[in-house]
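Example 4.3 (complexes with small molecules)
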Amino acid sequence: MRNSVFNMNVFKERRELLKQKMKPQTGLIVAAHPEYVRNNDVEHAYRPDSNMVYLCGFEEPESVFLFRPGHDQETILFVREKDPFRETWDGFRYGVDGAKEEFKVDATYSIEDFHRVCPGLLSDLEGVYINLFSNHWFDSIFEQVYMAVDGLRGRTNKGKLEIKDSRTIIGEMRLFKSQEEISWMRHACEISSEAHIELMKACKPGMNERSLHGLFLYQIMARGSAREGYGSIVAGGDGATTLHYVFNDQPLKEGEMVLIDAGAEYRYMSSDITRTFPVSGKFSEAQKRVYQAVLDLQKELIEMVAPGMDRSKLQNRCVEGLVDIMIAEKLLKGSASEIIESRSYAQFYPHGVGHWLGMDVHDAGAIEVNGEPRPFEPGIILTIEPGLYVSRKSEGVPEELKGLGIRIEDNILVTSTGHENMTVVAPKEVEELENLVGVNYKD
Ligand SMILES: [Mn+2]
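Answer. The structure with manganese (II) ion bound is encoded below.
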């Protein structure tokens, strides 16, 4: 037997809120996504679907949760059956009875019976919220159910079961974090920040990027994190100018900077921190000048975060600030307005100022409402991450800036009075970094 890390009241409260957002006479389905083969008979480590975990906390593959407000059986889980043979190999399964007991739902069935049982549970509804076309396993089992529902309704003069998008309605909920979710995120941010500090202390020229990645995993897992929230980026020198650098396998060189974009997941809340610092612990003049300019801008952007602010205003200020740096550093010629108009800045800054943060690193929730940028409200968590990237291949740029990639990223909670920087523990000032980097090797 395994016990869930969650108190089941969390899911009950979330479902009560969801109920108020659903149209009358509708149901909602979330499904586990499938396992993926890594090689031969080995699968990739399984990380459950965020919406599935959000609404019922069930973490096994081959499971479906059905929510039918107003019915006697309101909460229903379809799960894998107990299987002593498979459990000997792959580990514990709750099974039909265990899932009902532990996850406090009204009814559970074997997933093998989904196509037989589910049609009857949907046939009297007007519509169902569902996420189709992103989960081939679920799409294939739902197709049969949908046809069977049609058959049942044909005899009752009911029209077709209306299909609605579940991601929108759940995304609206996930965007606003509860006090408990904020406390889990705070923990994810704290342990990630502490891990970044340990990486700074352990960094030295000649070390491989992979060593720092491994150290990050050790530091967060030793602090209770289940896994990284996304594939960590450890990119020395020119590697940092590739935005989603995935190789993490090059030696770190004296004189270069290293960019580390890594965050821990705790209770399914993911932190997302980026720090950039000199491999040797000492900034060159050019590195220091550009870094300080990006840092000043990042701090200014964080100060702007408050209720009523929106991502579009932050993005505009971010672009303006970075374009000023690009002109001062002779990366681009011309006036700021021409550069912004032509978007020529995008070769050195091709991404956004930040994104929602939560169970997914790029979290659910619309960034626009009725065609307008969504004003920030308390309980939203977002990243602020300006960056400047000068590839070695860039032409017509100062030699001293070639191969320089800088991004500084913090995780910001919108509060009723302004904001809270949840990753403030991770150092980013020039002097702090110079004092910390490589300190493990100093007497
Ligand atoms: Mn990010």
